[in-house]
Amino acid sequence: MVKTLCVIAHAPSPNTLALKHAVLAGAQKVAGVQTNWVAPLHTQPQDILGSDAVILGTTENLGYMAGALKDFFDRCYDPLLDETQGLPFSTYIRAGLDGTGTKRAITSITKGLKWKPVQETLIFKGAWQDRFLKDAEELGEAMAAGLDMGVF
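The structure assignment produced for this chain is given below.
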């Protein structure tokens, strides 16, 4: 049975768009997993309900997650609360500072949803580095491989 990985990523700049593409490219290396990308402002509860795992991607804006990702949580939290407990997920943050406030906020919300973090949050800190793309691709591939192998 094909598993579905939903990538909900805010990508307002060329660098964050490149990160999103790298995550998707990594995930698409795994044949047994279908990967979908949805912009946070367009994500609906059914996008998550139809998925076996999620990758959340956001920028750090003033020490917090992007408003677009917060909007997703605001709109979808209640419909997902009782339906997605235990959902495997991972997160990446493009942080100009340190990303800790963003990580803390996402952790708080996903704990409330009772989602299961399956990888350490990736925080891409400071000035752009080309290795960010390799790390993002590895994140996507690892999530998809874990789904495909039934690890989570």
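Interim note for the steering committee: The longest strand covers residues 53-61. DSSP finds five helices and seven strands in the chain.
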